[in-house]
Structure formats: structure tokens, C-alpha cells
Amino acid sequence: MTIIDGKAVAADIKQQIAKEVEQIVNAGGKRPHLAAILVGHDGGSETYVNNKVKACEVCGFKSTLVRFENTVSEEELLNKVKELNNDDDVDGFIVQLPLPKHISEQKVIETIDYRKDVDGFHPINVGRLSIGLPCYISATPNGIMDLLSYYKIETSGKKCVVLGRSNIVGKPMATLMARKAYPGDCTVTICHSHTKNIKEECLQADIIIAALGQPEFLTADMVKEGAVIIDVGTTRVPCASRKSGFKLTGDVKFDEVAPKCSYISPVPGGVGPMTICSLMRNTLLAGKKEFYK
Ligand code: GUN
């Protein structure tokens, strides 16, 4: 059994990005610039955005953090999005989700110029991904593809079960794993809250990607011997013995599932670091005015 070290893979990829950025800058090119909009003071979002800004420094990118209070109006936020769309110095930007209830996330996403949508959330990018055209790919699923390829995990003809059907992870993940490519070429099943025989589906899977947001959902009795398990869960479960007051908990019961696997990604230190790394890769591409092909 191999524990997938997302932290090490992400560090390696960020070093490669930093090298390429220096080459671009030394040749007289523009340093890539990522902007992030953060609304309010949600603990998780603050941490994610801080980590994105830190990763920009490691990669040699310029970064700008734009902050709004929770009370910001939808119109004011949309105006900022339009301003960033038209700012030639900004190569790509993200609006950290979730947003306060009075703001339509979909409206915000659709206002972002898809050529600067380094989150890959805009319907144009999602649609282009689904028919195999150059696009930006949602960071978490793309980071998982990087992990599979870094560890040279076989995917062709394998049965892959994706647990969860979110727009950000489950749906693009299923699209990528079914794609005519490596990693990909899988027979993919998406399971969700209305799936009747989830245990039987999982028991048939060679690869399980758990992205339900239900702590320790996947147990040993649901996993085939030798399966590859990728855990996307990051639920903050209250924990009195920790200074932070919570324990980041995945969707997989790691201790009992790990002995049955060929590969397993832990939480933390698996998919999480790769998500930010993928955003950096998207930003480098945006800086070069390129897409994933
Ligand atoms: N909230 C949780 N994950 C993400 C992400 O990948 N991008 C943005 N913008 N918000 C998020």
C-alpha cells in the first residue's frame, strides 16, 4: 500500500512553475498575476485564500487580494468582477466561495471572463471540458489527475466510482476520468445521496474518488482489495484536544480502509495541497494566454 504524498507532489510542481516563471521574466515576459476576491470572514475561506496567496509567492506570481465585508451588495461585487475582467495586468482571478446568501454565486461566476476564470467554474470552461476543447479545469479534479499520473496509476479500462456530484468536484472529475486520455479511459459511475446500492457500486470499483463531504463515509467493507482511494473530503470536525478546535476529516475511514488499498490519499496532505497547485498551473497558463489542451 502506498500513501499518496500530495504535499511532496505539489511542492515539486510549484518548483517547476517557479522555474518557468523565472525563465519568462528573464526573457522579458510578464510575471503572471492572480487576483482573489474574498467576501466576509469565514475561517475556511480565509485559510484557503491565504494559502493561495502564499503559493503565489512560491511560484513567483504577483498576487492581489480584494476583500469585501459580508454586507457587500451583489452589484458592487459584480462591478469588481467586471473591473478585473478589464484589468490587463490581471491574468486570472477567483472569487472565493461560498458567498453570502444575498449574492447569486452563479451570476458572479457567469460574469467572470472565461479567459480569466482560473477556477474553471464558468459554463464556457465546463462545456469546453465536456467536449474536449481547450479550457481551464476545476482545480481539485485536475489536481487529482496530476496525482494519478505522478504515481503512474493505471486507469485505462478501470471501473471508477465518483462519490458526489458537485459542480466543482464530482461532475468534472467524472468527465476527466471518462476522457479518452491518460489518466482517463475509465468506466465511470457517479454515486450520490439518492444512489440505492452505493456499497455494491463501491465494491466493484478499481478507483474510488470520495467527494461527498461526509466524514469517514467510506468504510473497509465498501472497498475491494487493491483499490485506489482518493479522498477529497475536508470537513472540520470539532476536536477539543486541538488548538484550532477542529480536526480536518476526510470522507474515508483511513485507518481501516488503507490496509486494503494499493494507493490511498490521506487527509490532510493528499488532495488538498494539489488543489492550490492546480490553481497555480491554471494561472501560469492564463499568464501565457493559454488553456489546457
Ligand atoms: N471554495 C471551495 N473551493 C473553492 C475553489 O476551488 N475555488 C473557489 N473560488 N472557491 C472555493
Give me the secondary-structure topology.
Elements: E1 2-3, H1 6-26, E2 33-39, H2 43-59, E3 62-68, H3 74-86, E4 92-95, H4 105-111, H5 123-130, H6 139-150, E5 159-163, H7 170-178, E6 187-191, H8 198-203, E7 207-210, E8 227-231, E9 235-238, E10 246-249, H9 254-257, E11 261-264, H10 271-287
Parallel strand pairs: 1-11, 2-3, 2-4, 5-6, 5-7, 7-8, 8-11
Antiparallel strand pairs: 9-10
The structure holds guanine (GUN).
Task: Write structural notes for this entry.
The protein has 293 residues and is of the alpha/beta class. α6 packs across α7. 43% of the residues are buried. The strands form three sheets. It has a six-stranded parallel sheet with strand order 1-11-8-7-5-6. The chain has a three-stranded parallel sheet with strand order 3-2-4, with helices on both faces. It has a two-stranded antiparallel ribbon with strand order 9-10. The protein is built from ten helices and eleven strands. Helices cover 39% and strands 17% of the residues. The longest helix is centred in the first third of the chain and has 21 residues. It has two domains: 125 residues, Rossmann fold; 132 residues, 3-Layer(aba) Sandwich (Rossmann fold). The mean pLDDT is 97. The site of guanine (GUN) has 6 residues, from β4.
